[in-house]
Amino acid sequence: MSQHPSLQPLDTIIIGAGTAGLAALREVRKHTKRYVIVNDGPWGTTCARVGCMPSKTLIEAANAFHRRHVFDELGLRGAAGLTADIPAVLKRVRALRDEFVAGALDATNDLGRARVSGHATLLGPSAVDVDGRRYDTRSIIIATGSRPSVPEEWLAFGDRMLTTDTLFEQPTLGPRVAVIGMGPIGVELSQALARLGLEVAAFSTSDSLAGLADSQLNAEMAALLKAEMVLHIGAPAQLREVPGGIEVSSGPNRVVVDQVIAAMGRVPNIQYLGLETLGVPLDKRGMPKVDPQTQQIGDLPVFLAGDANAHTPLLHEAADDGHIAGMNALVADTPTRFKRRTPLGIVFCDPTIARVGQRLADMDRAQTVTGTVSYSNQGRARTALRNQGRLYVYADKATGRLQGAEMCAPDGEHMAHLLALAVQQKLTVHDLLGMPFYHPTLEEGLRTALRDAARQLPQGRDSDLATCKAIGVSALE
Amino acid sequence: MSQHPSLQPLDTIIIGAGTAGLAALREVRKHTKRYVIVNDGPWGTTCARVGCMPSKTLIEAANAFHRRHVFDELGLRGAAGLTADIPAVLKRVRALRDEFVAGALDATNDLGRARVSGHATLLGPSAVDVDGRRYDTRSIIIATGSRPSVPEEWLAFGDRMLTTDTLFEQPTLGPRVAVIGMGPIGVELSQALARLGLEVAAFSTSDSLAGLADSQLNAEMAALLKAEMVLHIGAPAQLREVPGGIEVSSGPNRVVVDQVIAAMGRVPNIQYLGLETLGVPLDKRGMPKVDPQTQQIGDLPVFLAGDANAHTPLLHEAADDGHIAGMNALVADTPTRFKRRTPLGIVFCDPTIARVGQRLADMDRAQTVTGTVSYSNQGRARTALRNQGRLYVYADKATGRLQGAEMCAPDGEHMAHLLALAVQQKLTVHDLLGMPFYHPTLEEGLRTALRDAARQLPQGRDSDLATCKAIGVSALE
After folding, report:
1. ipTM > 0.95?
2. Residue A401 gets which letter from DSSP?
3. pTM (predicted TM-score)
């Protein structure tokens, strides 16, 4: 395909070739050849290089190994002879990661001169400098992503201070590892490493694990994690060099480890971008206001998409951001306002933490009905020896409409999708109870929570199968 | 609770205390004390005693053991030292089964004299004989369940001829086992036993595995099963005694085994019930016509629910049948007509076979759009080394409404529920594409199939996130 990046002004310049940038690119390419996509550092998305994919690959190995603890009860012998070959586990993570990255590179490999490696700096809303070369452009899409947050002073620990950027590059790990920060990434990684047999100590300033809003759920999840690792939550952690390793202390608790993983969140890559040349107010982080329905900055032809805008740093939201920015960057007049999807957050720990729809804090609790189920005695979960966790559904008291859900439940990622569809479609608890629940499935547990909510709502007609109550046979719930 | 089974006529008599009978009981108990529930043989449901629960417990052990084949690739060592202790596996199946059965017994343990063990025979539409005692009654609910079908002449093989009624009672199995019949039960059991290390040879007269309607899906599933067992489909199997075991032959294929499992479907328990006393026409099986929306036989106060009516021998349908029968048995006038749930069938093999909504054969193919995805290169499935299978969605060409789906897909049971909700709620492909799909999940594979269908449907508005196309990064699909 012939590209014309030298014909200026460009219609747009995309800064960043991660998920948001590539989603924008897909739209831009449909309409113009007068564009450039610029990337600073390695090409390939955060997701493929250092995020979703390597972490999920690690987690699969960890969960497969962890399962050995139930082998004897299942009637399988020889589990004591199993070992996790950490270097081999990491090697597979990298090998698969390389394939996923190669897949991401395919999205830009055919772009010719429209694909530019370098550091972009805004010169205003219509011009960008890339390592000394100036591009005049009708619009700009900024999709520079995010990076792990690490306190400056901790960098002194050198290669013993890891983040997701470096973790998967290690030839081996441990045997003693501390994870600082128990947001989604900290919870996933600390559990995975503990399940691989490393001695993991996890620390979190926040009381909430992976952002769980319900305190009962949080307490259950904390208890489950404490069975697998050392976990100290509710106080900040300090690090210092001691003979034999790095000492991590938090209140009265201290532990010495070989490596520390900083999982303290991600910061948007908006420094050194020249955002100050746009002439719009920037907050104390240096962030301009971005409309989440258009991705536009003020009324400028400048769009900020993906992790870089710090709205919802999740892949599917970044892809939507990029799509919206790509659509809107090419229109001269009013940008299109997009309705965003139902919020959905999943943390790939076990049981799965997931949140769907409205946040608990944003609900009017007096107008909200809560239904719950514990998975500790759920039939199908018991057959699999995966009977842990709990699920909450929240519904509007007046209409019965599902508002949201929060859970730490076995295979919760799937039930979260079902609930997300229900919230997106404004379905009621009654609507959900009208669907078939196959036996024996984990979804029957969800049904128990829905029935719990339904009991607190106006009753449906008796002639409707959705009103069926439990039979009173535990295996059926 | 005081019961009054001696006050006659009863309001109703429930014959059979399985899932359908217990569901009927739940409704009946709410409204009257003038009832009896009769059970012939062991109390406890088919599901808990010999069906869903023991088979799923067996399958969990089998799949956990089977997973060892990917351990080395995941970086886990020592898998060669793992063994399946078949007697221990079966012992756990029975132990858990006993707990589930005890749970089912709880539903009738407090009934006092209303709980009657014995064989019931109808004396007409208003009277039932139970082992010589006559009950006059205003209505009758028949919920006598079903039993495995075994050719009469095969009974000569004695305790080497197994069915689900006897399989889980065995102290051990194999080492050579033949499974005759590859419906849902045959597929589940043959794969589970093969995965536990038994030498399994499976035979099916039908070309279709577990009722799969799509030939491509069926071929993929057959290829997957053939990697785990000997499989001969499309011709009937003959059995004969030979030195060293039972020879099973089918066309040119023969194999000698230690035990044979007959998985040739289930027959409704309607013999010796006295249905001929009702004065309604019976078909050649001896089955009267039963209205699936009322469970009523003709206009008699007699209701036939659960497996015994042979409509849809699935637990959740049996429970609904029982609910409907229980509601309708107590009304003197016109019974309520219930709208049944969206059809949903799941076979717990791996990848999971599932079917949702309308049958392929019942669709107008000229008016139907098909979307598909292969899981062989799906991102999340690859991280788990579970990248096998395929999924089809079917939508109405004019409206885009989802009509149904068929799949053999990893964790397909969950996607089947999502699709069942969509069909039940009459959602369109576009509606589904409007929901969030988290990354990386198996649901992203479903999205690929939906996008494939969407391409063949009238296009939605560009300003709608549901119209987002794939980014072209393989890890994201």
Report:
1. yes
2. B
3. 0.97
